[in-house]
Amino acid sequence: MNIYIMNVFVDDQAKALDFYTRVLGFEVKADAPLGEHRWLTVVSPDEPGGTELLLEPNVHPAVDPFRQALVADGIPAVSFKVDDLDAEVGKLKALDVRFAQEPLDAGPVRMPILDDTCGNFVQLIQMKEG
User: Fold this and answer.
1) What is the pTM of this model?
2) What is the per-residue pLDDT across 73-129, written as a single tens digit (0 to 9) for each?
């Protein structure tokens, strides 16, 4: 059994598409009309056949209260592993990405939390060596 698709609820699919592709560097895997929304997934360019991230519209009434509670508590909706955290943070800051938490050490990882501009926090993780 493998993980095929994970989702992140977004309040604007076009804005999310821009952020997750232009800013974070993911590539579009699927983009198909689905009523007034789209079936919109992105993947890592390093693993084009890997797990897809569905940029899912937040149309269900339970979504906004849930996301607002996560953001209020500083909890990321999704987490991505990177090889060079300092380089990624520098690149993202140059693109004016807002960080809710600067990188910090947490056991075997270093991690910051950033705002995806679509209602979520995103966590980046770099595994420490040793």
Assistant:
1) 0.94
2) 999 999 999 999 999 999 999 999 999 999 999 999 999 999 999 999 999 999 998
